[in-house]
Design a protein that fits this description.
rod-shaped; about 290 residues; mainly alpha; Helix Hairpins; single chain; 5 helices
C-alpha cells in the first residue's frame, strides 16, 4: 500500500510543468486575500449604487410622463367645453326621448279612446240589431202560426166541400127518382110530387150556394196562404240581411277589443320606459355635478 502511494506521488510530480522544475517563468506570488468583511461591504456599496441609478431612471421616466401629461389651460378649457357639449347633447337627446315618449303616450291614449268610442258605437249597433232580429223572430213565429191556421182552414173547407158534393149527389138522385114517380102519378099525387120537387130544388140551390161560398172561401184562404208565404219569405230575407250585419259588427267588435287590449299593453310599456328614463336622468344628475 505504501509503495502504491509513493508511485502515485512520483506520477503526480512528473506531470508538473517543466518551468516549475527549471525555475524559469515562475508565477509571481499571489496577493493575500482581503478580509471577507471588507469584500461584503464593497459589494453592498456597488448594489446600492445600482439601486439608486435604477430608482433615478424610474423617477426620471415618471417625470417625463408627467410633463408629457400636463395640459395647457387652453387644452383644459377645450376638454371642459367638449364635456359640457356632450352633456348638453345627452340632455337634449333625453328631453327629446321623453318628449317623444309623452307624444307617443298621448297618441296611444287618443287611439285607445277612439277605439273605445268605436267599441261603444258597435255595441249599440249590436244591441239594436239584436232587438230587430228579436222582432223578426216574433213576426216569423206569428206568420208560421197563421200559416198553420190557414192550412187547417183549407182542410176543413175541403171536408165541407166533400159533404156538399155528397148532398148535391143525394139531391140529384132524389130529384131523378121523383121525376120517375111523377110520370105515372095521379093528379093529386102529381101535385104532391111537384111540392117535393120544389123543396128539392130549394135545397139544391142552398147546397149549391153553400158550395160556392165554400169554394170562394177556399180560394181566399189559398190566396192568404200565398201572401203569408211571401211575407214569411221576405221576413227570412230581411232577417238574413240583418244577421249578416250582426256578424260583421261582432267581428268588428272583437277586432276593436283586441286593438284596445294591444293599445293598453303598448301604453303600459311606454309609461314604464318613461319612468325608467326619468330614473336614469336623476341618477346622471349627481354624477354630472361631481364632474
Amino acid at each position: 500500500m505504501t509503495n502504491e502511494i509513493k508511485d502515485y506521488k512520483q506520477s503526480t510530480a512528473s506531470k508538473e510543468s517543466p518551468k516549475g522544475k527549471s525555475g524559469v517563468g515562475e508565477s509571481k506570488p499571489k496577493p493575500k486575500a482581503e478580509p471577507l468583511k471588507e469584500f461584503l461591504k464593497r459589494e453592498e456599496i456597488i448594489t446600492m449604487k445600482k439601486d439608486i441609478t435604477r430608482l433615478r431612471e424610474v423617477e426620471a421616466k415618471k417625470e417625463r410622463e408627467r410633463i408629457m401629461g400636463l395640459e395647457t389651460e387652453e387644452e383644459v378649457q377645450k376638454k371642459r367645453e367638449r364635456r359640457e357639449k356632450l352633456r348638453k347633447e345627452e340632455e337634449r337627446k333625453r328631453v327629446e326621448e321623453e318628449k317623444r315618449g309623452r307624444l307617443s303616450r298621448e297618441e296611444i291614449i287618443k287611439q285607445v279612446s277612439d277605439l273605445e268610442s268605436k267599441e261603444d258605437e258597435l255595441a249599440k249597433d249590436k244591441s239594436i240589431l239584436e232587438k230587430i232580429l228579436q222582432k223578426f223572430a216574433e213576426e216569423k213565429r206569428a206568420s208560421e202560426e197563421e200559416r198553420v191556421r190557414l192550412s187547417e182552414r183549407i182542410n176543413q173547407l175541403e171536408k165541407n166541400l166533400k159533404d156538399i158534393l155528397a148532398q148535391e149527389k143525394e139531391i140529384k138522385e132524389e130529384a131523378e127518382l121523383l121525376e120517375k114517380k111523377g110520370g105515372g102519378a095521379k093528379p093529386l099525387e102529381k101535385k104532391e110530387v111537384q111540392k117535393r120537387r120544389w123543396k128539392i130544388e130549394d135545397r139544391r140551390r142552398e147546397i149549391e150556394q153553400e158550395g160556392w161560398d165554400l169554394r170562394e172561401e177556399k180560394n181566399s184562404v189559398k190566396l192568404q196562404i200565398k201572401e203569408e208565404d211571401l211575407k214569411y219569405s221576405k221576413l227570412l230575407e230581411e232577417e238574413n240581411f240583418y244577421l249578416e250585419k250582426l256578424k260583421d259588427i261582432i267581428v268588428s267588435l272583437e277586432k276593436t277589443r283586441g286593438e284596445i287590449e294591444k293599445g293598453e299593453k303598448k301604453l303600459l310599456k311606454v309609461e314604464e320606459e318613461l319612468k325608467k328614463s326619468k330614473a336614469e336622468s336623476k341618477e346622471r344628475q349627481p354624477k354630472e355635478k361631481n364632474k
